[in-house]
Design a protein that fits this description.
With 131 residues, the protein is α+β, with helices and mostly antiparallel strands. The protein has 2 helices and 7 strands. It has a domain of 78 residues. Strands 4-3-5-7-6 form a 5-stranded antiparallel β-sheet, with helices on one face. The protein is globular and about 35 Å long.
Amino acid sequence: MAALSVLIGGGVATAAWFTLGGKKDPVTGATTAATTAAAPGPRPQTSADARFATKGQCVRNEGSNTEPKLRIVVCTANTYEILKRIDGKTTGERDAIRKCASIPKYTKWYYYDTGYDDVDFVLCLREYEPV
C-alpha cells in the first residue's frame, strides 16, 4: 500500500511538472522550468518606512508629536528634508539633540530606539525649502 502511494504521488508530481512549466529543449533534450521575462517598467519602490530613509530624502509625520510615524515622501511643502542620518545606539531625546547640534540648518530631529542597538538611528531634519 505504501509503495502504491509513493508511485501515485510521484506520478502526480511528474504530471504537474510537465503541465505547469517543464519544457524540453529540442536541441539538447534537457528539461528546464518555464520562466517569464520581466516586464519593462519602473523599478519597485522600496519601503516608505523612515527606517530606510537616507540623507537628501524627505519625510512626513503621519502620526502625532507624541507618537510620530515618519514616512518617506516626495520633497514638497510640509515635509522635512533629512540632512544627516546617524546610525547606531541612541539613548533618546537628549542624545538626538546632541548628535544633531553640529549639523548646519537642522531644526528638528527624530530618533528610533529599540532594544537592538544595531538598528537604532537619529535623523537630523529641517523643514523642506524648494530651491
